Structures are given as structure tokens and as C-alpha cells.
What we know:
Oligomer: single chain
Distance between the termini: 55 Å
Number of helices: 3
CATH topology of the domain at 28-96: Alpha-Beta Plaits
CATH class of the domain at 28-96: Alpha Beta
Strand content: 15-25%
CATH superfamily of the domain at 28-96: Peptidase S8 propeptide/proteinase inhibitor I9
Amino acid sequence: MSHMRQFAPALIFSTVSFVLIAAFMLAPQAKGEMAVAFPPFTSEETAWSIVRQAGGYAVGPTQLPNIVVAYAGDADFQRRARDLGALFFLNATGLCAPQLDRETT
Length: 105
């Protein structure tokens, strides 16, 4: 048990560093292409409607129906989308990459 206390600060520092680096790597630019995440069980149709209301453009759906890839022409898009129900924004890569073989609603 005392050995764990000795390693606790190093473990905490490593965890915080990993989270900060991951957040930096996953954060999108203020404008341009980005994945927009909505609460679970938000339909893809609702997500696209909110993207359009916030002034964004449809790029494509992702593998997850509550995350869509949008193009934001200005830096205020994220604020407007958040006000309408978006939770957070990510780079459009990996699971959040656009699935262009599917049609958007």
C-alpha cells in the first residue's frame, strides 16, 4: 500500500498529461470540417437539422448516428451549435470520419 502512495503523483501526472494530449489532438479547428457530437439517441435527421440551423453544411454521416461531420464557415458555428444542443466537437477522423458511401438525411 505504501508503494502505491509513492507512485500516486507520477500516476496522476501521467494520466493528466495523456488526457491533455489526447484532447489537443482530437480538438478541431474553430472553422472548417469537424465532427459534431450530439446526446445519445439523437437521430441523424435531428443532428443535420441543428447543423443547418447553426449555419453549417453537411459533409457526411459517421458510423455513429449522433455524430455527423459538418463544415463550419465561421468560428461562431460551434457556439451556435452548442446553443442548439451539440455536446462537443472533434476532428473528423477514425470513428468520426465521414462515411461518404451513405446518404445524409
